[in-house]
Amino acid sequence: MLLVQDSMKLPEMYNRQADKSDYYITPSFGPVENILVTREHKHHTQLRKVMAGPYSYTNIKKMEPLVDARVMQWLERLKMEFVDKDMPVDFTPWTVFLAYDVISEIGFGAPIGFVEAGCDQENIIKHLHAGLREKAILNRLYPFLKLLKGTWLGRKYFEAGASASSGLGILLKLRDRLLERRLKDLEEGKEGRQDLLQTFLKTRTVDGKPLDIEYIKSEVLLVLLAGADTTGTVMQGLIHQCITRPDIYERLRDEIKAADKAGCLSTPPKYEEVSAHCPFYVACVREVMRLWPSSPALFPRLVSGSGIDFEGKLAPAGVEVASTPFLIHRDKNMYGEDAEEFVPERWMEPERCKKLLKYFFGFGYGARVCLGKDIAQMEIYKGPMQLLREYTILPVGDDRVGTYTIAGGVAYWNNMFVKLVPNKKMAN
Ligand code: HEM
């Protein structure tokens, strides 16, 4: 595998004809592959055409009120559990609680209930994090996995079943329960939900057929796995900046105050309002995703066509090339000498921003770029933003401001304790 740091090479490496390599073989997902792990580019193009509708901005926009309700519930729970009791909060799990509840609500019509319970229900998050390193090692042993996939041995030892007590097993049970309930509702003529599952069920293939139920199951699981921790990590990174960089925090607060004074923000703010009126907030989100990506995985592809030239050396078709946002986003040729520093302003010069976005790798790249980007951004533009509007966020000790941890191809923060003081109280 050839590891690449040059961001200018992304368009060639991640072009439309590039197949994903066998590195993506994941026996744990079961026999039917979802869009993320499908390797062959032609098959992926077909799936992407089908999935484009459910994940389109127009469709996601319709779900915004569902996100709003979850964000407001999250704030209410934080108030009850920590603000009213004058207690510090370990912020990192709470962002993931919100992200899981949002994704399960807009994905399948019911929040898992992390926020309501205020805890890691059935230790789902703990179990999922615990298995990450082992999964990453297995990924690297893909010739072995390829041999085992589909065999009795592979199914017995690697495929998570709904009966398993692992984090994945619990999510599978949840998925099956939600799907069963929805199919029953549809049988009884109950419609009206605006969520991803409903659009998956209504989607038709190019020859007019409904999607296979096993395929829908596989996509549903992907949403639960790809959509929560990743989003939580960005929210955590943002709050880490607020409690460690007073200059950044001050500027964020000033921007929000000005937008509020001008009457530009609803409660909670709309995705489009934040995009239009809070450029520094948006720049901070991008800079957080640049330096502390949620998925600092390798994302390997097979070189296609006539090969790729790397500084005079040709990587011919079939060679496995890979990169990770962790490296790409620190490329000094793209970001300058201050590439290692948190400088949101780099995203605020329109011409420079256009170029940086063209080579941004935080949501993947090219034809396989993240389908849930708008869902994630909608949530990130609401949750922490509304928190900043309502509270002053104070660190609780220098050694508890958060640690960015990479496990396998996934990253998250932990040990981030903060005190939330109502802004009204601070003003008095
Ligand atoms: C900040 C949050 C998120 C980050 C950083 C992120 C990151 C990524 C990355 C890096 C990829 C490309 C993987 C590859 O090339 O192998 C990807 C693909 C994908 N993501 Fe996300 N993601 C996020 C949120 C979400 C959400 C909320 C959903 C769903 C609700 C989602 C669904 C997907 C899907 C379906 C794909 C596969 C796209 C394809 O192969 O065509 N993601 N994501």
From TrEMBL:
InterPro entries: Cyt_P450, Cyt_P450_CS, Cyt_P450_E_grp-I, Cyt_P450_sf, Cytochrome_P450_monoxygenase. Keywords: Heme, Iron, Metal-binding, Monooxygenase, Oxidoreductase. Gene3D superfamilies: Cytochrome P450 (1.10.630.10). The keyword Transmembrane helix does not apply. Its cofactor is heme. Belongs to the cytochrome P450 family. This is Uncharacterized protein.
